[in-house]
Amino acid sequence: MTYVRPHYRRDGTHMRGHHRSISPRTAQPRTAPRRTTQRPRPVRTGPTTYIRPHYRRDSTHLRGHHRSISPRTIAVAAGTGGGGLLLLLSLPALAG
User: Fold this and answer.
1) 3 — phi, psi (to 5°)?
2) Short-list 72, 65, 28, CA closest to 49
3) Please, what is the Cα angle at 93 between 89 and 96, to 5 degrees?
4) What's the rounded Cα separation, in Å, for the pair 60 and 56?
5) Is residue 50 within 8 Å of residue 64, measured between CB atoms?
6) Residues in contact with 62: Cβ distance below 8 Å, sequence separation at least 6, in sequence order
7) What integer best gives the mean pLDDT of the chain?
8) Cα 7 from Cα 23, distance rounded (Å)
9) How many angstroms separate the CA atoms of 71 and 31, rounded?
10) CA 88 distance to own-chain centroid
11) Residue 62 above 60 pLDDT?
C-alpha cells in the first residue's frame, strides 16, 4: 500500500493523508501515454523580493519563492531609508 500525503485538489478541497492500494499494471489498460499540460507560470510585474525556504510555526515547510512588493511597501521603505535619522542628527547642528 502506498501512503498519499495530505494535499489540496485543484478545486480547492483538502484531502487528508491516506493509504492507497496499488493495483497491478496488467489490470490497467494503457492505450496511449498521458499528456501532462504544464501550468503557465505567473508573470511577475513590478519589483519582487526573494523569500528563503523556511518552516512555519505549524512546522510546514515552505520552499523558496519570489514575492511581489506592493507600491505602499516601496514608498514606506523609501521614505524611511535613514532620512529621518539624518534629520534628527542634523537638528542640533543647525540650531547651535
Assistant:
1) -90, 130
2) 65
3) 140
4) 5
5) yes
6) 51, 53, 54, 55, 56
7) 77
8) 22
9) 52
10) 39
11) yes
